Amino acid sequence: MTQSKETKTMLAMPKMLPHIQALETYEGVDPMEVMAERAGIPPEKIIRLNGNENPYGPSPKVGEVLGSYPNFNYYPDPGQRNLRRVLSGYLNVEPEKIVAGNGSDELIDLLLRMYVGVGDNVIIPTPTFGMYSFSAGICGGEAIPVERDENFEIDLEAMKAAITAKTKVIFLTSPNNPTGNLVPEAQTRALLDTGLIVVMDEAYFEFCGETAIPLLSEYRNLVVLRTFSKWAGLAGLRIGVGAMDPELSATMMAMKPPYSVNLAAEVALITSLEDTPRLLERVKQIVVERDRMMGKLQRVPGLTPLPSRANFILCQVPEGRGQVIFDGLCSRGIFLRYWGGGRLKDYIRISIGLPHETDAVVAAFAELCAEKGGEKDA
Question: Considering the entire predicted model, what is its pTM?
Fold first, then answer.
């Protein structure tokens, strides 16, 4: 007998997994149009410095090559053969140790699905990049936060003390997002010596030049991540890379969606590497501008900017004024990164943009900090 439409809608659906229902959504960056609507100004007047994006964009050769590329009607190579060969030169590791993904986010997700199940955990020195705990939650795992010390350095002994029989992965970020500081090699080695999988996320490598890549020859449990979103200006095309033990990479290649890296992203990455000198000159410009912004922020009463080796600066604002200052910036069309609570409730992160954007941001901070309640405590 055929069921009526009303009867079909009353049938019980399968229950969603509890850990998926309980997930807190990772908060990404709003598009320019949404920011403009919030501020009530045209999109072209928005200063968007909340995503650690590259203000200079990709290599001009990328647009030229993408515009003339004839084979977008074909699928990309699921084995990433040419891509891995090219990336081998960039990473200075063998092609069989490399996997490319739809951003580093996909590689984080794949790795955790390989090791983390319901009830397992990963260890994260906080504050840090929120995608690690989000991806662990998707797997039914738990992120164990270990607070950094008063200078936002890793508390190594606390990290080791947090390890349990259910711990599978330790995440490190160097330079760390959002604090901008590096992980010393001695700490990396100490955590690798635990035998757990240690992920070193080097999304901002080009801005500091320090890497854990050489340790891959000593430690099979090390995974190093890089991205082309920051230094190469390819954030919108979503491509990241991982270097790891070849047995691990073979498993990851076997389980990933076959075409997760789209052909446009692959072409853009290869073209970017062919134009590396120009892109690294832009990286130098960003570093110079970072240092100029640091000097200007240090002269604003009430602000304490933290030293950074990345393309952003985390800045402490007067106590209890974080939300008010953030809202004041937004009303001026200046969008920075604010977490709104916890240890970072009085901190705002500023991505490095163009010089005129630096000047506008610093001027706005000076105005807002000078308002009643904004003076720095003696």
Answer: 0.92
CB atoms within 10 A of CB 312: 28
Measured between alpha carbons, how far is 125 from 103 in angstroms, rounded to an integer? 22
Comparing 229 with 35, the larger pLDDT belongs to 229
Report how far residue 191's alpha carbon sits from residue 201's, in angstroms, rounded to the nearest whole number: 14
Closest Cα partner for 362 from 310, 311, 292? 292
Instruction: Compute CA 372 distance to the chain's CA centroid, rounded to the nearest angstrom.
Output: 35
As a whole number of angstroms, the distance between CA 228 and CA 53 comes to 10
**236 burial level (CB within 10 Å; 0-12, 13-18, 19+):** exposed
Closest of 91, 93, 73 to residue 269, by C-alpha: 91
Q: Are the beta carbons of 235 and 52 closer than 8 angstroms?
A: no
Average pLDDT over residues 170-182: 98
Distance (Å, whole) CA 252 – CA 128: 25
Report CA torsion sign: 253, 254, 255, 259: positive
Helix segments in 193-275, DSSP class H: 205-208, 246-255, 263-274
Paired with 124 in beta bridges are 145
SS (H, E, C) 94-143: CHHHEEEECHHHHHHHHHHHHHCCCCCEEEEEECCCCHHHHHHHHCCCEE
In this structure, what is the dihedral angle of CA atoms 66, 28, 100, 53, given to the nearest 10 degrees? Answer: 60
Mean pLDDT value across residues 186-194: 98
Dist. CA 16–CA 27, nearest whole Å: 22
pLDDT at 374: 40
Q: Is the CB of residue 75 less than 8 Å from the CB of residue 249?
A: no
pLDDT, one tens digit per residue, over 80-119 is 999 999 999 999 999 999 999 999 999 999 999 999 999 9
Q: What is the pLDDT of residues 322-364, one digit of tens each?
A: 999 999 999 999 999 999 889 999 999 999 999 999 999 999 9
Burial class (CB in 10 A: 0-12, 13-18, 19+), 261: buried
Question: Among candidates 200, 262, 250, 205, which has minimal Cα distance to 95?
Answer: 250
What value does the mean pLDDT take over residues 61-81?
A: 97
Calpha distance 350→297 (Å, rounded): 11
